[in-house]
Amino acid sequence: MDEVEVVVAHSERATLRVGDVFLKVDADQTNIDVEVEAMALAPIPTPEVLWRKPPVLALAALPGTALGRLGEPSTASPAAWAAAGAAVRMLHDAPLPPWSGGSVDEIASHLDAECEWLIASGTLPSDLVTRNRQVAEAALRPWTPVFTHGDLQTTHVFVDGDKLTGVIDWSEANQGDAMYDLAILTLGHEERLDDLLVGYGTDVDLDVIRGWWSLRSLGASRWLVEHGFDPSSPGCEFDVLRSRM
């Protein structure tokens, strides 16, 4: 029998790998519904759905390795990053999925609540939070919705050499801001943004991308702390916030 590898596990969901099969267990079946439909709609490579028996979804493993990991330098080639950028562009140019994302007002309200918690809890200095809240303002503007992945971390993008082999974890796919996907993919890997844009194109707003780097890091920190992750690890969210000072 193959060894069971725990890929990620917390109170909301868990992902296990057994050989070439990933087993995803999610307490909220809506997430699985979105993931399956989004993969069917996406015009880029995604994992094959092997079977589904709620609350478990079985997916075939993608060949290759992740584009990178937060907190570690990416060893992927510039051409691999460019291939990822080209795939993201193809996704953003595709017809919209049926699920809308959060409104600017909803995102801003959540961000302000998270900033208050970070300061009140003593998790981060108030000047660091305040500065990044100012930077995040650039992302809080109207945008034209596109088909976004919604959680396009480097660990969700797989490459083999210079070729993209697929993208995983589609449960947060929605009609969202194109700059958000680009920001999440380069969070903690700012030096690879130029490589990404070789494939994606240059019609991007760098201030908005920087705004999303700050917004994502501020907005996710409490969840990470409460679910056993460490945003203070080198190269992770707190370092991203400090780089804005």
From TrEMBL:
Domain Aminoglycoside phosphotransferase: from-to ranges: 42-202
Transferase in keyword set: yes
InterPro entries (alphabetical): AGP_Transferase, Aminoglycoside_PTrfase, Kinase-like_dom_sf
Keyword Transferase: yes
A single MF term (Gene Ontology): transferase activity
Keyword set, alphabetical order: Transferase
Domain of life: Bacteria
SUPFAM superfamilies per record: Protein kinase-like (PK-like)
Transmembrane segments: none
Protein name: Aminoglycoside phosphotransferase family protein
Source organism of the structure: Jiangella asiatica
